[in-house]
Amino acid sequence: MAAVSLSAVSKKFGPNTVVDKVDLAIEAGEFVVILGPSGCGKSTLLRMIAGLEATSDGEIQIGDVVVNDLEPRARGCAMVFQNYALYPHMTVAENIGYALKVAGLPKADRIARIQSVAQMLGLGEFLDRKPMQLSGGQRQRVAMGRAMIREPKVFLYDEPLSNLDARLRVAMRAEIRRLHQRLGTTSLFVTHDQVEAMTLADRIVVMNQGRIEQIGTPDEIYRRPASAYVASFIGSPGLNLLRVNVSTNDGHIKFGDGQLLAYDRKIWKNLQDGPVTFGFRAEEARLASDGRGLSIRFSFSEELGSSRLIYGAVADEEAVLMIDHDEKFSADETAALSIPNSAMQFFSAETGRRIS
């Protein structure tokens, strides 16, 4: 395993900058997830590390070596793709061991390595099958085995679970995490799925329009998002974000319909008079039993089994509340929300950055 370092790395396609001066340091043995929507530059960043895309600017270092001018095969990386990229005419064993065959490893050694990797991935009984005879999850494990057998310094995963159904994605997430614990190889995993990011990562890199919005542990990014963008992207659902005006004299925020909500001026010393974005998590607000609080009009619900998401409007802006399954709900009902100071978050109305 090896550390990976990116310094002011950029990528341009003609006049368009898709990765813009990215700085990132990944420790040896760390599992880092690069998270963002389609088109944010996350896969391009991964491909530049792998050597499949040339950098327009900046420096990429793997271990102690600057790799900008090295061929992909010389960088010590192994990549797992979204589309598996298996040879359909080869067996599972031949697919897994192909890199060793090309490298000229003796057949006996090659077979031993293939069997070891196959057993680790639960593929021992499928070695003589062709890819078309396997399920999606089994094909993805074959692709992972082909990467593992090279014993790389760095694993690169480019949205490897996107083609799997929901149940298989959950199973494969656990498989990948167990594999990382066993091997300890430095891993970079690209995804647009925040659940994958939260469950897999030691640290998450949130990207937006070619730039890094925030780097942190899953807990840090969930509890202290650095911007309104990160706040809305992380969590299921994301943070409720509502436009308000701050009045520091009386310690209230004012909503578009004139409702007032008190905040603790001792906690939020950096708030200034004027417009800000106010946020709170769906699971941190509660229905006020005494009827006093922020007024919300409900519209519909989503059943989650043990709980329920209630969608509604606060001052004509959408908000979501998570309630216990046994709490009552009626469409068009108006209720009061209690939001503790510990659940309140504020972001600049101009820049979207978090107000500390």
Structural account:
- This protein has 356 residues and is α+β, with helices and mostly antiparallel strands.
- It folds into two domains: 4-227, P-loop containing nucleotide triphosphate hydrolases (Rossmann fold, 3-Layer(aba) Sandwich), CATH 3.40.50.300; 233-348, OB fold (Dihydrolipoamide Acetyltransferase, E2P), CATH 2.40.50.
- The chain has helices spanning 42-50, 92-102, 107-120, 136-148, 166-183, 194-200, 218-223, 228-233, and strands spanning 4-13, 16-26, 31-35, 57-62, 65-66, 77-80, 154-158, 186-191, 203-208, 211-216, 240-247, 252-255, 260-262, 274-280, 286-287, 294-303, 307-314, 317-324, 334-338, 345-348.
- A six-stranded mixed β-sheet has the order 6-7-8-3-9-10, with helices on both faces. Strands 13-12-11-14-20 form a five-stranded antiparallel β-sheet. A five-stranded antiparallel β-sheet has the order 15-19-16-17-18, with no helix packed on it.
- The radius of gyration is 24 Å and the shape is elongated.
- 35% of the residues are buried.
- The model has no long low-confidence stretch (mean pLDDT 90).
